[in-house]
Design goal:
alpha+beta, Maltose phosphorylase, domain 3, Glycosyltransferase, eight-stranded mixed β-sheet, 29 strands, globular
Length: 657
């Protein structure tokens, strides 16, 4: 054999990961891969499965927060929805149903001590089964408005989920509820200026908004800029859903409302182009940086305007320029809510309200998620890099807490042995979604790539959801888009910045190769990372079961048999099969973690109590996934649905095997 033929082929990529591969900026590629790892069972990193909660077969805010919040889930859920697969799609919907199944109707009484009856169409601060808080639950609740911007954000999340899934039955189910929410929001429009009125704690990051403090010292309604921004984002998506449903009159109605809402925006825009926080009815602005009165910069409304494309390109650049000129907004790389301190709270800025601690200059990763989408949109990927690096420092210590105090430096609950709060997953979720910014519409998906300049090849090895279709993306080169291939064939629907994917023309599984600056497209390894790590061979070949897991072995064996039967019956992609598969994978990962700790390949946490708590969280995750699946399957025993009846039969068969 000649030396030429014996020579090994050069490596295809500088970086090879389970979820991402590529050439160029290896550090950024590794951060992308790590971000995606945090949404799958992982022996080293806290991951999404740890938020599973059997009580409602869904996700929970965290071990110390036993409910599901709108403002806290807004960033992570919005950013993760495109790449979530089952069973997390079902889990997230079950959690959001806690809001929509108990939404205000003019009769339903909220949870004590508030005991409030919310207007029709109002969503909430948070909810769990049989429990809903319609108003923000902290602070002077006697002053608090209904969850105005909570409702708008909830509409964004539910519309986004429906636009991605494209299920006509689900759209028909939720549209009436979403329309009620839209009417509730519309009730706060002032027809004189097309701005929206809200009182104390009617904002998204409540209760940092006090409304209008009148000359007599009482508080009333003011024009809240965030309510305009988030309502426009909600209407954008609701209009697309109405188009899908063929409801032309509703499309016209909501388009008119959106146009009016946009007409009001100049009144809450500063001379420099960014948005103020609010405007009092007497004309006093709040949130004009440097002003003698209320002279702070409000970050949340501004990064949301960029993220959801309410701000056009020129205004988005102006907003970012102002933000970047204020170092105090990102002392520790993560965006805080405002800088400097709020001077218009309804309480003194001390204790929980002191500057840098909570809703007055603290950090919330649900907000950081929307900021990261903004970074990508404007080409500031190094800002996104720093966000991800900072949150990973918390992740490696099992301190994924929120909010973060001391301007984003410290956990909110440092005395807990470990922290695990859903907000924190907004950072890795946005780090993924921002890369190929997905804009879901009634008839198509618009993809806007934002590949860092240091990366010359990129392969995303997991699917993005588009109805029942799965999309895999790769990119090569730099500059403007010059060529797109779909499953190897030229794709004409693109311009220099965007790719247009009409649903009717996209294959069921699509390998989408994007070339920039005249480069040749890169072949995508379709499905390389999508398949679960679980399976009977994984369980059989895993390390020995630790003592703490022995009680779970028989339980897991039965779930493994169900998974096998469902797959054989052609139900391998069903929610039930994927829930079983997730439990199996978490069990295998749990065993792998204990083996790695014993082998010294996973570094132990500094505090023994933290190590014990971290290890137990893996076991608890498996236990909860088993409990939840078993409870769901029990409800199928008398189901009329033929698929559920079949699954119940298969589950019963596993008991005697």
């Amino acid at each position: 054999m000649s030396s030429t033929t014996a020579r090994a082929a050069p490596p295809r990529y500088d970086y090879e990961g389970r979820f991402y591969a590529g050439r160029g900026d290896v550090e950024f590629l590794d951060l992308l891969n790590t971000a995606r790892r945090m949404f799958e069972p992982d022996p080293e990193l806290q991951n999404l499965a740890m938020f599973y909660f059997p009580a409602w077969n869904g996700l929970v805010e965290g071990p110390t927060w036993n409910a599901w919040w709108v403002q806290n889930s807004y960033g992570p859920t919005y950013c993760a929805l495109p790449f979530w697969q089952e069973p997390f799609v079902t889990f997230a919907q079950n959690s959001q149903d806690l809001w929509f199944d108990q939404m205000g109707d003019g009769h339903h009484v909220g949870a004590p001590p508030w005991n409030s009856v919310a207007p029709d169409g109002a969503l909430c601060d948070c909810a769990r089964p049989g429990f809903i808080i319609y108003k923000q639950g902290d602070g002077r609740t006697d002053l608090h408005d209904w969850g105005m911007e909570f409702t708008a954000a909830g509409v964004v999340l539910q519309c986004e989920a429906l636009l991605i899934a494209r299920d006509p039955a689900a759209i028909a189910r939720y549209l009436p509820k979403l329309e009620r929410c839209a009417d509730f929001l519309e009730s706060r429009r002032d027809p004189k200026n097309n701005l929206y009125l809200a009182a104390a704690a009617g904002n998204l990051l409540a209760p940092s908004f006090a409304g209008w403090k009148k000359p007599d010292g009482t508080y009333g309604h003011a024009y809240l800029a965030g309510l305009s921004i988030t309502t426009i984002a909600a209407l954008d998506r609701l209009i697309e859903l109405e188009k899908m449903a063929g409801r032309a009159e509703r499309v016209k109605l909501y388009s008119e409302r959106r146009a009016l809402s946009r007409q009001g925006l100049p009144l809450i825009t500063t001379r420099e182009g960014y948005f103020m926080k609010s405007l009092d009815p007497d004309g006093t602005p709040h949130g004009v940086f440097g002003a003698a009165l209320h002279g702070y910069f409000e970050a949340t409304v501004n990064h949301d305007a960029i993220c959801f494309r309410v701000a056009g390109d020129a205004q988005a650049q102006a907003i970012y320029a102002k933000l970047a000129s204020i170092p105090g907004l990102r002392l520790y790389d993560l965006i805080i809510t405002n800088y400097p301190s709020l001077d218009d709270l309804y309480t003194e800025p001390k204790g929980l309200w002191e500057f840098g601690r909570w809703v007055n200059g603290g950090h919330w990763s649900t907000c950081e998620a929307r900021m990261i989408i903004g970074y990508y949109r404007l080409g500031h990927t190094d800002d996104a890099r720093r966000s991800m690096q900072r949150i990973l420092a918390f992740a490696r210590q099992f301190r994924m807490d929120n909010n973060l105090t001391h301007f984003g430096r410290d956990p909110y609950q440092p005395k807990e042995p470990i922290n695990c709060v859903y907000d924190a997953w907004g950072v890795p979720a946005a780090f993924i979604r921002g890369l190929f910014e997905y804009l879901y519409q009634a008839d198509r998906l618009v993809v806007i790539p934002h590949i860092p300049t240091g990366i010359t090849r990129l392969e995303q090895r997991f699917p993005i959801r588009f109805g029942a279709k799965r999309l895999f993306f790769s990119a090569t080169g730099a500059g403007e888009i010059t060529k797109v291939l779909v499953n190897g064939q030229p794709w004409p629907h693109h311009d220099a910045q965007q790719i247009f994917l009409p649903y009717a023309e996209v294959p069921a599984e699509a390998r989408i190769e994007i070339a920039f600056g005249g480069a040749a497209p890169t072949t995508t390894t379709m499905g390389a990372a999508h398949d679960s790590l679980c399976g009977s061979e994984t369980l059989a070949g895993a390390p020995a079961i630790p003592v703490d897991l022995k009680n779970l072995a028989a339980r897991m064996a039965r779930i493994g048999r169900l998974h096998t039967k469902l797959t054989a019956a052609g139900l391998g992609q069903s929610y039930e099969a994927t829930h079983a598969g997730l439990a199996m994978e978490c069990f295998a990962v749990c065993r792998a973690r204990f083996a790695a700790i014993d082998a010294g390949t996973i570094t132990r946490l500094p505090a023994p109590s933290s190590q014990t708590a971290a290890d137990h969280s893996y076991i608890l995750t498996v236990e909860r996934l088993c409990e939840g699946l078993e409870k769901v399957l029990e409800t199928y025993a008398h189901a009329e649905n033929p698929v559920k009846k079949r699954i119940a039969t298969l589950w019963a068969e596993t008991r005697t095997e």
